[in-house]
Amino acid sequence: MPLASLTVLTTLVHVFVALRLLPALAAATPAWPLVAVLLALSAVCMPLPFVRRRGPHRLWAVVQWAGLLAMGWFSSLFLLTLVRDAGLLLAWAGAWAAGAAPDWPRWQGTSAVVAVALATLVTLAGYVNARRTAAVRRVRVPIEGLPSQLDGFTIAQLSDLHVGPTIRQRYLQRVVDAVNALGADMVAITGDLVDGTVPELREHVAPLARLKARHGTFVVTGNHEYYAGAPDWIDELRRLGLRVLLNEHVVLQTRSTHGAQTDEELFECALLVAGVTDYTAGHFVPAHASDPHRALHDAPPLVHTRVLLAHQPRSAAAAAAAGFSLQLSGHTHGGQFFPWNLFVPLQQPFTAGLHRLQAMWVYVSRGTGYWGPPKRFGAPSEIALITLTSAR
């Protein structure tokens, strides 16, 4: 949407909320001018994160923070205003049916105060949840026919970090330290790592070079990489020592190649890790069209345990048909904060957690960072530690 249209739309929505709340607040509390000022500031600030950078970096960072905080607060206030109006309408209908005469000015004033207070409290709690270091979520995935050598194999999954206006180097370094403390066999980054170009964010993604795992770190692209210039980011991540998988795979040997093992024995206890580009990548770079079947081209047939890294859960149907054992995804953020989690199923088959699709497991991370407002409510961020286990 063009910036001018976006500004007009957000201003009109702010005017709607002001008309619905301010008259009732003026009758209920002497603090109503503060809410009026906050609404005016929110209307001015909300479009700013979408404006191209102007002025000194530090000043622009403050502007973006203000806009994103306003976005988080106002989104909750707008929702609660609609809920308040629906509640008042139902109360009026009930009172009319019962022939009652309630104190409408008091009801309107109290409900307006509650809407503003709840929006503010949810935003504060969501800010704390978003800015803390993501907690480790431990998930055991039972795989049928899993070789004994792979029983207990661990994958630390990061997803949707969205390094950008409010997620910077120190935030990412805390995540890297938490992952390294897990001692995982491999690290998987399932897309939407950045929200900005390589020159803007190079120093802020640098901590990724310090990720440690026995078999290394593997990355797939998300839709936001394509918004930010995916080819440049692929080169930069490879420069940092990360393995970017573009509709391709690697075979990880879990037994020593020395000794008397035959090739058959080595392949049977190996793990195939494949990665596909984002589900929508072909719209940006035609050569990057996502293809789970292509990711298995020339795969050793004796390697039966196959894990796919795919940013969007929508890749799952094709992945199951291709014969993968497990798909690791992100993209949804678990909804990030209410009520957006209610809309995720309209686009994606899974919102968060572990699911089964035919013979394949799908694990969807709620994300390690956040997008847009620094706010998480009801969908905490996570570092997933996936452990492969034998199905009993």
Task: Set out the fold topology.
Blueprint: H1 3-28, H2 32-45, H3 57-98, H4 104-131, E1 135-143, E2 154-158, H5 169-180, E3 186-190, H6 198-205, E4 217-220, H7 223-228, H8 230-239, E5 243-244, E6 248-252, H9 263-268, E7 271-275, E8 306-309, H10 316-322, E9 326-329, E10 353-357, E11 360-364, E12 382-390
Parallel strand pairs: 1-12, 2-3, 3-4, 4-5, 7-8, 8-9, 9-11
Antiparallel strand pairs: 2-12, 6-7, 10-11
Structural class: alpha/beta
- The amount of helix comes to 40-55%
Order of helices and strands: HHHHEEHEHEHHEEHEEHEEEE
The global form is elongated
Tell how many strands the DSSP assignment holds: 12
CATH superfamily of the largest domain: Metallo-dependent phosphatases
CATH topology of the largest domain: Purple Acid Phosphatase, chain A, domain 2
Strand content: 15-25%
Average predicted local confidence, pLDDT: 92
- Annotated CATH architecture of the largest domain: 4-Layer Sandwich
CATH class of the largest domain: Alpha Beta
Radius of gyration, taken over Cα atoms and rounded to an integer in Å:
24 Å
Unreliable segments (pLDDT under 50, ≥5 consecutive)? none
Biggest sheet overview: 6 strands, mixed
How would you write the strand order of the largest sheet? 1-12-2-3-4-5
Separation, N- and C-terminal Cα atoms: 52 Å
Written account of the structure:
The structure is a single chain. The protein is an alpha/beta fold and 392 residues long. The chain has 2 domains: 129 residues, no CATH class; 255 residues, 4-Layer Sandwich (Purple Acid Phosphatase, chain A, domain 2). Helix content is 41%, strand content 16%. The strands form 2 sheets. Strands 1-12-2-3-4-5 form a 6-stranded mixed β-sheet, with helices on one face. Helix 1 packs across helix 3 and helix 2 packs across helix 3. The termini are far apart.
